[in-house]
Structure formats: C-alpha cells, structure tokens
Amino acid sequence: MLRSRCVYHFCLLLTGQLLCSWAVPISVDKTKVSPPEEKVPEPPQSVDTGLHYDRYLREVIDFLEKDQHFREKLHNTDMEDIKQGKLAKELDFVSHHVRTKLDELKRQEVSRLRTLIKAKQDLEGGNDKAVDHQALLKQFEYLNHMNPHTFEVEDLDRLIKSATNDLENYDKERHEEFKRYEMMKEHERREHLKTLDEEGRKKEEEHYEEMKKKHADHPKINHPGSQDQLKEVWEEADGLDPEDFNPKTFFNLHDTNGDGFFDDQELEALFTKELEKIYDPTNEEDDMVEMEEERLRMREHVMNEVDTNKDRLVSLEEFMVATKKKEFLEPDSWETLEQNQAYTEEELREFEEHLAREEKNLNEKAVDLQKQREELERQQEQLNAQKLELQQAVEQMERLKLQKVEPPAEDKGIDGENALPAAPDNNQILLPGQQQDTPTNL
C-alpha cells in the first residue's frame, strides 16, 4: 500500500497522532449498561507519515504524551487552536525530564540535517567549499535553526504548523506525481511507436485499444461512501444480511483501532471490494499504480463529503449525519480513472517539450564531460611521456656512471717526478748528434 494510506493519521495534533490517543465514546443506553471503568486507551500504533522529518515528529509526540499536564490540555483544546499554536505555549509547563529529552531530540535532528547538507555538498563536488550550516538550515522550517541546542515553544509551534501544512498538501503533490507518471507512460508508448514500421505500429495500436477495452469492461462501481457501497461490504466482506444493514454497527465494525474515528487507512480499506472489480494484478491491462490513485480519489471524495470539520478524520457523529443525506441514499454514478484522464493533450505537449529540453541539456553536459575527459587523457599522455623521458635520462646517467673508466697512470720517480730515461747499455755515451745504435770508433 502506498504511503498515502496513512498520511493523515497525525492530522489532529502534529498531524493527528496525539488527538487520536483519546477515544470518542460510542453512544450507549446508560439505563441498560453499567458504566465501565474509565481507562485511558493506548494510542494507536505509529505510522509513517511520509514526511522527511517523520521520525523526529513521532519521537516528539511520544514524549509529549508522557506528560500528564500536556495530555490534559490537549484533551481540552480544539483543532483550530492547535493549528494556531495555542497548545504550543503549554510546553513551558511540561516536566523537566520531558523538556530535557526534547532538547536531546532536537540536537540529534540538527546533527542529522547537517550531515545531510554535508553529504549533498560532497555529491555536488563542493568538498573545497566552506559550509554555511546556519543558512542552509533555514530551508527546514519545522524547527528553529537559530537555536540548535534546546527545544522551545517556537519549535513545537513550527513542528505543528509544518506537519499540518505538509500533510494537507500531500494529496495535491500525490496527484501531480501520478499525472507525471501517466504522461511519461504515454510519452514512452508514442516514442516506441516511432521505432516501428507501418505494420508494427498498426498491430501495436490495435493491441493498445484492446487492452483499454478489456480494462473498461468491469462490473458497476458503487459510489464511494454510499449506502450501496457500504451494504456490499457489509454483505461480502462482513458476511452479514444486507437487510440488517445498520450504519452505526457498520461504523463500529470497521473502526479497527476503536478510537471512534475513521482515519484514512480505515476508510481506504472499505474500497477494496470496489477496486477488485477494476484491477487484477495478474492482468496485463490493469496498472496497480492506477489502482492506488483510484483508492486515493475515493478516500478524498468521502473525506470531502463527510468530514465536516476538516480534521481529516470521520467521527461517528459525522458518519451518522452523512447517512441521512440524499447523496448517501441516492448517489450519482462514480466515474473511474479511465473516464477521467489525468492530463490534457496540452499538458502532455508541455511535458514532452520539458523532457526534450532536459535531454538537450543532458546531451550538452555529456559532450562537455567527454571533452573534459579527452583533455584529461591528453594531459595524462603528456605526463606519461615526460615521465618516460625522465626515466630514460636517469637510466642513461646510471649507465655512464657504471661504465666510466679512469685514464692509465704514468710511471713516476721516487720523489714523484717523472723518471729519467734509462742509461744506455754497455756504458755507451751518446755524443751529440749520434743515434744510440751507431758505434763509436776508438
């Protein structure tokens, strides 16, 4: 199930969990039933709101619920006062232990955000840049970034307002996301057709029309929240006689957590039978993403019709009032998604133009990156060549050093001077002008 099934569970305080911790009693005949012992029901199990600060939100809620004073004030504060921040002022009166724990939770959250900011900067290649955490923390409006150490009244006020606003906008964002999904699916289908020859396109179009026809061929869909729709659940899911249908009993049967309200999860569970008429995960023609969008549309419709105080919950009183209306007894037919295309041709054209621009930008970046890569490879080749030349020069010098031979030493005398030539043999005395081998006549 998509996360939209549990989003508004927190919407009463800090988007709902706090206020849901007190059950609204079901009307009973006190003359016939002994009053039960007063008990504080356990709060419903925490669910993921889908917010990026969901864990911080739930931890703050959990600790505030432990303070008796805060719980009592919460019980006597209406939804509008909560949204306007009046309840946040009661933070000054909670116990020291709770305040200390809230301080710790805030410091942990600020540390988490700083880590995320640093990680994002690293991914974007900004390792050499100084990080201005104070400036970047401004984007997180659910806490007071100017005081990262203690949890104050302003922090609780910001958390309430941010969570309420974010969750109220969730359905709108979800619809936009679904519209983009549908347009991308159609865009890819049309692009695929362009790759086929005429015969292939014809076969593909025929198959597409056949799948659309098969998907649209389903039993009648009851109007969500109508008597017919609830009676069908009463009979097929609950196994009860439709002639015995009783709205109050039905409400009690399907208020699964017993808190006296239908939340979004409990409401959406009522539409399962209707959705099974349209969607089958084993069928090629049925898209499960579209099924979840249909579930969301049904839940939104019932909330808009029945939730009169707009707290994103349906109380027993609101439910009983709705069962008296003409829309409940004689509803209009329900138009499913295939009867309400999520986008217009103009929106699809703009979407495809946007995709084309993005593709062009990506291609330009790819070309730039390729040029940078080629330049880096060229520089690397130059460095490798220089390195090789240097290595060859060093090797040549080593060879010269090893092969270098000193010139032969000359004979020297005792005193180190060059020795005289040896005296001629046979005591011959050479006269001036005579050669050594010429004999002298006596």
Provide a quick synopsis of the model.
The chain has 16 helices and two strands. By secondary structure, the protein is mostly helical.
Give a verbal description of the structure.
With 442 residues, the chain is an all-alpha fold. It has 3 domains: 1-25 and 41-168, no CATH class; 172-343, Recoverin, domain 1 (Orthogonal Bundle), CATH 1.10.238; 350-395. The radius of gyration is 44 Å and the shape is flat. Strands 1-2 form a two-stranded antiparallel ribbon. Helix 1 packs antiparallel against helix 4 and helix 7 (170-194) packs antiparallel against helix 13 (288-306). The chain starts with 53 loop residues before the first helix and ends in a 39-residue tail after the last helix. 54% of the residues lie in helices and 1% in strands.
Q: Tell me the overall shape.
A: flat
* CATH architecture title of the largest domain: Orthogonal Bundle
CATH topology of the largest domain: Recoverin, domain 1
Average pLDDT, to the nearest integer?
A: 81
The CATH homology group name of the largest domain = EF-hand
The overall number of domains is 3
Helix/strand/pairing category: mainly alpha
Measured distance between first and last alpha carbons: 142 Å
Report the β-strand fraction as a percent range. Answer: under 5%
Into which percent range does the helicity of residues fall?
40-55%
- Strand tally: 2
Describe the strand arrangement of the main beta sheet, using strand numbers.
Answer: 1-2
Major beta sheet summary: 2 strands, antiparallel
How many helical elements?
A: 16
CATH classification, class level of the largest domain? Mainly Alpha
Stretches where pLDDT is under 50 for at least 5 consecutive residues are 1-46
Rounded to an integer in angstroms, the radius of gyration calculated over CA atoms is: 44 Å
Q: What is the string of SSEs from the N terminus onward? A: HHHHHHHHHHEHHHEHHH
Biased composition (Basic and acidic residues): 403-415
Family: Belongs to the nucleobindin family.
Protein name: EF-hand domain-containing protein
Coiled coil: 153-180, 341-403
